[in-house]
Design goal:
With 257 residues, the chain is an all-alpha fold. It is built from eleven helices and no strands.
Length: 257
Amino acid sequence: MFHLVQRCCFRTPLRLQKLTGPRLLLHGKNKTSCSSPSLSLQRNVCLLSRPLSLSRASVCAVKLQAFHTSFPLLKKKPPQEPRREPGLLQQSMKSLKESPKPALYLSLAGLIPFVSVPLLMVIQRTYHPELAFLQVTYGAVIVSFIGGMRWGFAIPENSPAKPDWLNLANSIILPLLAWQALLFKDITSSTVMLVISLGIALHYDLSLLPTYPVWFKGLRIVVTVVAAFSLLATLAVKMVSENELINSRPKRQNTKQ
């Protein structure tokens, strides 16, 4: 097999292969047994018998092999993406645990009038318009209180908020919206107006006006979401009760006939 490979690849004469073949085998078994003239003759014949294209291909192969087997530290590492900083919502919710206990407990207690009204209606399975009006009135008071906090935050000398037109005028807009909600005769319009007012107040405190502490922002998010869902829950109970009354009227008329 060795003679066939050597004859096909290197194109050497048959006699020369017979002379050099055994010596190469002896050289593989015992390196000291081969003479230096035979090795030099064999190397020269092999170099002369190789075509030019084969030598170029071998050079390219050696270069590619050297490129692929280069030291791994010399290779360029892909640039690492910068870590994304958490958003305002994540920061405020994480810092909610750092809020002072009086502010946390009083804010959660202030949600009881919002949550208790739809919960009581769901338990009794009836809609009470008087309780719904009390909930809207309490929501208007809370919106006015949130607007007044901006004045108390901007008036002190060392405060980061300045008593300018932006801070003071925006704080007055919220009581006006709450007053407009009480002027509506329909509870549905009043509830929608209060939900919009709570959203505007939260937008002011988070983005537009000078910043409050981070823990206070998280507290404002929780209070606003719970209050808005409580108002919408009361409105949903009202719509369900009205649909039940409409569906029950034809049955009563049929029983009377």
